Amino acid sequence: MSVTHPAGFRASGVVAGLKSTGARDLALVVNDGPSKAAAAVFTSNRAKANPVLWSEKVIEDGRIDAVILNSGGANCFTGAFGFQTTHATAEAVADALGVAAGDVLVCSTGLIGVGDQSFRDAILDNVPPAVAALSGERDGGADAALAIMTTDSKPKESTIESRAGWSIGGMAKGAGMLAPGLATMLVVITTDADLDAATLDRALRAATRVTFDRVDSDGCMSTNDTVTLMASGASGVAADEAEFTTALTALCLDLATQLQRDAEGASHDIAIEVVNAASEDDAVVVGRAVSRSNLLKAAIFGNDPNWGRVLAALGTTDAEFDPYRIDVSMNGVMVCREGEPGDDRELVDLTPRATSILIDLKSGDATATIYTNDLTHDYVYENSAYAS
Amino acid sequence: MSVTHPAGFRASGVVAGLKSTGARDLALVVNDGPSKAAAAVFTSNRAKANPVLWSEKVIEDGRIDAVILNSGGANCFTGAFGFQTTHATAEAVADALGVAAGDVLVCSTGLIGVGDQSFRDAILDNVPPAVAALSGERDGGADAALAIMTTDSKPKESTIESRAGWSIGGMAKGAGMLAPGLATMLVVITTDADLDAATLDRALRAATRVTFDRVDSDGCMSTNDTVTLMASGASGVAADEAEFTTALTALCLDLATQLQRDAEGASHDIAIEVVNAASEDDAVVVGRAVSRSNLLKAAIFGNDPNWGRVLAALGTTDAEFDPYRIDVSMNGVMVCREGEPGDDRELVDLTPRATSILIDLKSGDATATIYTNDLTHDYVYENSAYAS
């Protein structure tokens, strides 16, 4: 159900011919209201795709009618022609729906540099079929979730119900380039709660900060990431902001861990939990540094509890801690205690996919968890062959 | 010849039993003077091995008699016992040579957490044989270069002659964890020029800043890196500082590129040259960001000129440039021009091992080159099996 689960939304996913496989590659999500309040967050990469440049403007007034998303080409570094393609796409959707182009958000994902005339034609020619296929039923949301996939092995969807009478639905794609400041990640979240744009913006930023922003699969930040939240108000319920933020955060975490579990070529999902940090920033900095150690990630691929690589990585940060007092546990075994060898590393069983690294900085009471993956032969294979 | 090429030095490399292969694993380099001036630079990692903690003190007075180096164990995160091992090692060398322990620099490389009683015994028991084997001939330097190898496939040596009558010799080890702030890299450089410690320190910092510090093979920074420079003054020639620094830089670059060419599992040596940057710092920041993109490195392994991944990486930096004005060339083909697709990417031949990525930021006149490698199946294999 995902994005069509809350009342007031229709969605579709059609074949525009952008994917060489002939799979669905053009998705549309429409908010039928009565409210059109919305919020969005974008990649912090300075190299932004044309749809991001467009959509940053569209969201400024906190109101959108629809989001159109394509896979099969990033429309990034495609110059003025690429930007005109994005503009024309929004115009085509607006014409078909009878709304303003400035209320149509656009998202793309795929290879950077792809966005020529044939790309433009494929999208524009298939906006009418996408509009015609719009459905508020289960299939509409499911087709949209399929259409945004790239190297994802499966669609990612999530829903949450509130006893207060509103619900949230979401879909996501992303399998490589998962990194802070968002990942190659397109996410659309819908709710039938009645909330204004400012509240949606606060809730979305609070939720993404501790979920999508803490997935760091391979340290690479995308040019196209966009998370959009639309509220139709169709439930007629003005949700409590705190309750809504909590529910939204839970839904984002569910989608984020679905992304992690489907990361390109990964064989371990690694949760790096940093505790007793002097500040949350310190905990995040340390977690990220560890999550970016190729040496550690390769060791975990080989089921090798090489804790020295954890310490070598965190030693590169300027977070507050004494490196010779740190404890490190892997899957529950404290392999490093007070900066010295702890329990026997042979006790660590790294064969399960779910992997836990717990780092105790002993410098305060702040905590953060970073979600990453191991570095595998399949990662190298998939990413050396992506463009071909 | 390497470290024994300049007059006034003897070296040896013996089998202490630290390597399971039975290969040489304990090296000693002695300065017989008349001058004992020296300088050293160390890893900037806060997690420092015990020999680094010791050697940082030893070098403070700019004078050392000898350097002892072991492979087969990092003696890092081994606590007070590990530090006592380092101290005892220096004492043993000092006793055998009739010098002060505070003038003996100690280096280790190998697995973090290794440094128990058997490690200590192996080193201490083999200091006398290492002293007995000291030789100023070619074999002495060659044996030392072999004894510091870990996953290196071959020893790295270099020499330079000055017409002024002095020479420099150097040896290096390092194959993984090659990153800024030095790599898992032990380097010993000798010269028979007559220079005081302050001059050596200036020259060494100037040389390493643009050579070893710009090798970023896999983004991982070691806990043990040390580059030591000793001057015997045995040529009787007080070298011109500028000429010496130039020669030292050339020698360091030679050793640094030998490290790059022998990086674990690599199939491409990638020189990322950033030109027309607003500052040298900007050029380095951009080069490093690109050198750390696993996606780009995997693409180059697959001979895929995926320039979008260059732009996605540099967009994560705060260097001064307009991402939509940048040119990117790969092996001489300008695949991205003014932030748009440039010449046909099919023209790029990435089959040679030597790979060039040229990034024109069009923001000033500063330049820097970062040396990195591709991300390969062999890298993953070697680093997932290192501890076993």
From TrEMBL, chains A, B:
**UniProt EC number:** 2.3.1.35, 2.3.1.1
Instruction: Cite the position(s) of the site with description Involved in the stabilization of negative charge on the oxyanion by the formation of the oxyanion hole.
Output: 109-110
Which keywords are on file for this protein? Acyltransferase, Amino-acid biosynthesis, Arginine biosynthesis, Autocatalytic cleavage, Cytoplasm, Multifunctional enzyme, Transferase
Give the main localization category: cytoplasm
| Keyword Ribonucleoprotein part of the UniProt annotation | no
Where in the cell does this protein reside?
Answer: Cytoplasm
Q: Which InterPro entries match?
A: Arg_biosynth_ArgJ, ArgJ-like_dom_sf, ArgJ_beta_C
> Site positions for Cleavage, renumbered to this chain?
183-184
Q: In which pathway does it act?
A: Amino-acid biosynthesis; L-arginine biosynthesis; N(2)-acetyl-L-ornithine from L-glutamate: step 1/4; Amino-acid biosynthesis; L-arginine biosynthesis; L-ornithine and N-acetyl-L-glutamate from L-glutamate and N(2)-acetyl-L-ornithine (cyclic): step 1/1
Give GO terms: molecular function aspect only: L-glutamate N-acetyltransferase activity; L-glutamate N-acetyltransferase activity, acting on acetyl-L-ornithine as donor
| Active-site residues, Swiss-Prot/TrEMBL | 184
**NCBIfam families from the UniProt entry:** ArgJ, PRK05388.1
Q: How does it assemble?
A: Heterotetramer of two alpha and two beta chains.
Name of the protein: Arginine biosynthesis bifunctional protein ArgJ
Source organism (scientific name):
Herbiconiux sp. A18JL235
| Gene that this polypeptide is encoded by | argJ
